[in-house]
Amino acid sequence: MNTTATVKVNPKVGDILVGTYGYEARIATFVEVVSVSGSRIKVRELKQNRNYTGCGGMDWTATPVKNSGAGIVTKVFTSHEDCYRIKWTSYQSLYGPWDGQPVSCYNYH
C-alpha cells in the first residue's frame, strides 16, 4: 500500500502561465493570475519583451512583462502533480507556474 499522498500544484496570485501555438510558427502567450477562487482563476494577458536573434527578425525569445496588459478573464484550471493548466483558446492551453526561462519563438511564414 502506497501511503505517499500526491501533492498537486495550484495557482497563486502573481503566478505566470505560458503556452505556445502556431503552424510553421511558435508564438508564446503569457498570462498572470490576478485572483483564485475554488477551481477558477482570473488572469490577464501580459505584454512581452522580445529579443530578436538571427537574421530577418523571424526568431526571438520572449519573456513576460509583469503587471502589464489589460482585460481580465475567468478560466477553470486543472491541477496536476507538477503544474496546472487552463484552456486559453480552442487551439492553445497555458501551463503554470512559468519556470522563468525565456521562451524560444519563431515565425517562418
Structure description:
The chain has 109 residues and is mainly β. It has strands at residues 16-21, 25-37, 40-45, 48-53, 59-64, 72-79, 84-89, 92-96, 103-107. Strands 1, 2, 3, 4, 5, 6, 7, 8 and 9 form a nine-stranded antiparallel β-sheet that branches. The model has no long low-confidence stretch (mean pLDDT 91).
Write the layout of secondary structure elements.
Elements (H helix, E strand, L loop, with lengths): L15 E6 L3 E13 L2 E6 L2 E6 L5 E6 L7 E8 L4 E6 L2 E5 L6 E5 L2
Antiparallel strand pairs: 1-2, 2-3, 2-9, 3-6, 4-5, 5-9, 6-7, 7-8
How many domains, as an integer? 1
Distance separating the two termini: 54 Å
- Kindly state the number of beta strands: 9
Can you tell me the overall shape? elongated
Radius of gyration: 16 Å
As a percent range, the share of helical residues equals under 10%
User: Helical region count?
Assistant: 0
Percentage of β-strand residues:
over 45%
Mean pLDDT over the residues: 91
Structural class, by secondary structure, is mainly beta
Q: What is the N-to-C order of secondary-structure elements (H for helix, E for strand)?
A: EEEEEEEEE
Largest sheet: 9 strands, antiparallel
| Uncertain runs | none
